[in-house]
Amino acid sequence: MTGFWDIAGELMAANDSLLEGSIMGQPCLRLGKEFVAMPEHKANRMIVKLDADRVEELIAAGIAESFAPAGKVFREWAAVADSARWQSLLEEGIAKAARSAG
Prior knowledge:
35% of the residues lie in helices and 33% in strands. It is built from three helices and six strands, in the order αββββαββα. Strands 1-2-3-4-6-5 form a six-stranded antiparallel β-sheet. The radius of gyration is 12 Å and the shape is globular.
């Protein structure tokens, strides 16, 4: 199984705006100052920031779960266990971050 940082490393090598940062005291992938994604090691999932409608779509399809640390649901964050989907969802997350950065 390819790990989160293996995929992120390949994407960072191709895009020098992608970098390792931190959020909530954990390492994460950022596009400039925008959060893109992070690994959730305890549950072996990837947390990725996407448009809220896309997160709802992924949850409805059984691809993702809500991300709700301390009981607060983050509507734009999807928790994805299937590592085969991580690269394409990371690419979506990068595109979302690029739109947000304007």
